[in-house]
Structure formats: structure tokens, C-alpha cells
From TrEMBL, chains A, B:
This is FCD domain-containing protein. Keywords: DNA-binding, Transcription, Transcription regulation. Residues 7-75 form the HTH gntR-type domain. The keyword Repeat does not apply. GO terms for molecular function: DNA binding; DNA-binding transcription factor activity. Pfam families: FCD, GntR. The keyword 4Fe-4S does not apply. InterPro entries: GntR_C, TF_FadR/GntR_C, Tscrpt_reg_HTH_GntR, WH-like_DNA-bd_sf, WH_DNA-bd_sf.
């Protein structure tokens, strides 16, 4: 445990609940037993179990729905800002450094997607490509759809780690660039389309190269973005 | 906020404390004001502030030392298992997939380290290389020192993201391989040494190649490790 010198009772109980989720092979969306059942199973008081559940909710392992119950989260254990970028002061350098990481990862991921994507996954990638294009053409904020597009590509890579990593390394650009004002509209539309069609054609080299192109345009944008606002918080 | 349908008061207060840490530019190890001061600043009751601090501790943003106070954590916001690997059932595929990610990232990181490492950083990398070697020779568990060695290389890459990512992608191998019984002792010692000397000589290509070699040995180990125990929990 890295976050505390010694474990409190609720922390120990939250570890117990994680073990329970794993043992029972509960899946995202599955409901946990109620407080009193958990309290009995763990041999603890209900108020301590309630504390433990709050800790698990803050780590996005469970989601508490008022009046309904406690459920395993959609992507359990993947927290908001898992690498603590909030606490990096120099957001510009952070955005540049995240893009360097994207250069290392994403061309290979695009190639894997071209190799392994199913027809259903290709349909989803194409739909997100269309939706992002529409937002871009309308001059609206496409950040969220953009991350969904790249995450869909990651999912079809069949690597278990990649879809969990993609949203993290994509948190960079909106940190200090107002993308709705971006001069990069045409290049983003074209390279997204090319990545999509290369994956659909199962052409790994073309997918990889289209992704390199996409990242080069992004790097140019970041390097020339001095005139845009430089946000200093997430 | 991805982890809850609606924010509770302690959640809102914990966001307030994060803003305070950022505004006051508190650094790792810095002490936060006590509960009553925070309660006054945030216009909330002490018990709600106490709840908020517990949430921040569970996200490793602060560390509570009994009888001493609340401090900004050493690596604030970087939680244990930030990508939720605990909840991936197939630990063998997870280890293989993490190694694929290491292939994409670490040769480039080694090259950056060769380009940018200071004399002090080279000294630290060499010390960790020596310590890992001693543990390997003694047949002891070297996992922790090994991660420290690779993290030290990451630190000297000067990329802000890399040192936060390295411990995460290194959590793989010990998941299902008992490294103390590893047949890879000689190869690990030799490739670690070669990486270290290449960085010390500021030879980026040699550092990159030594890292590739290191990863190839690791991949061979993972692929032939069927006979070792296959742990099913973190």
C-alpha cells in the first residue's frame, strides 16, 4: 500500500470487498450485496462497511446509486487522472511529453487494430469517425468523441492494457488548446478518415502511417499554439 | 467525474482541497493546514473535512500521519494499480500485453536517458544496477529494485509522463512469475549493465538496443514460463 503508513479498518475492509468481487467474479454493472450482508460476511460493523464502500467509490471500483445499491463500476479501478497530471504545473510540457508517448504507442496500436479488428469494431470506429467529423465541421468541441474514436481503435487492438492507457495519454491536448478554434480541422478529418479506412481494409502499414501523419499534425499544432490560451488547471 | 452519479459534500470538499494544494503550490511532503483551518477556509464542518481528507488519502493525494498531520503525498494522485489491472482476470495475457507496451516505450526511453541523463542521475542508475545485481546473485527477490532501476532511467529521460508510467507497466512480470526462481539471472545482469553503461556513455543507439535485448529475454521468459506458478491475484 503506497498511500498510507498503516491501514485503517475501512481500508482493510475495502481490500476484503475487492477480494470478494474477484472471488465471485462480479462483472462491471453487477450489484454488490447490501451493507448488512457484507458486514456479516466480513465480520464488521455496518458503519465501517459504509466507510469502506466510500473508499472504493473514490477509487472508481464501485459506483453507489442512491436508493438503488452499490454496483461494480464500468471500468473498475480506472480512476480519473490516474497518473496525477493535475499536480504537474507545466501543462504545456505535459502536453508535449504526452504527445511523445502517443508517437511511441499509437502507430503500433493502429497496426494491431488493422490486423485484429472485427467487422463490428470497424463499424463502431467508422461511426465515431463520422460523429467526430460532424462536430469538427460544426466548429463544436470534439474532444470527447475524439477520445472515444481512439479508444475504439485501442479496443480492437486486442491488447488488454491499451484501452486503459489511451484515455490517459489523450488527456493532453485539451489542457491548453481550445480545440474548437483549432486550425487543424481539415487535417484531423482527413487523417481520422484514412486511419479508419486502413483499419477497415486490414492494412496495418497504411494504418500505422496514417496515425504517424495524424500525430505529426498534432505536434505541429502544439508547437505553434502559443497564441491560444494556456490553461493552468485541469 | 466518472466514478459517481452525483457528488457528495465530502467529494466536493476534496476537490476544494485539491484546488487549495494547486493554488498554494504545495509540494510533495508539504503539510496541509489542520482540519479546523481547512474547515473555515472551505466553509464546511470539521467532520465533512475529515471525510474529504480520507477520500484524498485513498487517491494518494495526501498522506495522513497519525499524531503528526496531513501531508501532500510523495507522488500525488498516482494510485496503486491506477489502471485497474487487479480486475483483469487473465493475468498471463496481461503480462504479455504489458510487455508489448514496454517494447514500444522503453527502447526510446533508454535512448532519451542516454541523451539527457546528468552525472548525478547516471550515478543513481549505476547504484541501482549494482544493487539489483547483488540481489539476483543472492537469488533474492529483486522485483522492487528492478522497478526502481527502470524508474531511475525514466526520470532521466526528462519526459514528465514516463516516470509515472514506468511503475505501472512494470507491474506485469511478478504477477505470475516467481522471479527468485528465474532462469534469467545472467541475462538480466548483463543487459542491465549494458543499458547502464550505454546511458553513462550518452550512446543513445546502444542504450536502445540494449533495452531491446533486455525485453527480448523477458518475452522469452514469459513465453516459456508455463511451468511456474500462475498467480490469480495481485
Amino acid at each position: 500500500m503506497i498511500h498510507s503508513d498503516e491501514k485503517s479498518l475501512p481500508e482493510k475492509l475495502s481490500d476484503g470487498i475487492v477480494k470478494y468481487i474477484l472471488k465471485e467474479q462480479l462483472q462491471p454493472g453487477d450489484r454488490l450485496p447490501n451493507e448488512s450482508v457484507l458486514a456479516e460476511q466480513l465480520g464488521a460493523g455496518r458503519s465501517s462497511v459504509r466507510e469502506a464502500i466510500k473508499l472504493l467509490a473514490s477509487r472508481n471500483i464501485v459506483t453507489v446509486r442512491q436508493g438503488s445499491g452499490t454496483y461494480v463500476s464500468a471500468r473498475p479501478g480506472v480512476v480519473e487522472d490516474p497518473l496525477g497530471f493535475t499536480f504537474i504545473q507545466d501543462k504545456r510540457k505535459l502536453a508535449e511529453d504526452l504527445l511523445e508517448i502517443r508517437f511511441l504507442l499509437e502507430p503500433a496500436i493502429a497496426a494491431w487494430a488493422a490486423a485484429y479488428a472485427t467487422e463490428e469494431e470497424i463499424g463502431r470506429i467508422r461511426k465515431l469517425c463520422d460523429e467526430t467529423e460532424q462536430l469538427l465541421k460544426a466548429g463544436k468541441d470534439h474532444t470527447e468523441k475524439d477520445v472515444e474514436f481512439h479508444t475504439a481503435i485501442s479496443m480492437s487492438s486486442k491488447n488488454l492494457v491499451v484501452p486503459r492507457l489511451t484515455p490517459v495519454i489523450h488527456s493532453a491536448v485539451p489542457l491548453f488548446i481550445d480545440l474548437t478554434k483549432s486550425a487543424l480541422r481539415r487535417e484531423t478529418i482527413d487523417t481520422h478518415r484514412e486511419i479508419t479506412e486502413a483499419i477497415a481494409a486490414h492494412d496495418a502499414v497504411r494504418a500505422q502511417d496514417a496515425m504517424y501523419l495524424h500525430l505529426v499534425y498534432n505536434r505541429r499544432l502544439i508547437r505553434t499554439a502559443d497564441t491560444l490560451h494556456s490553461g493552468d488547471s485541469l
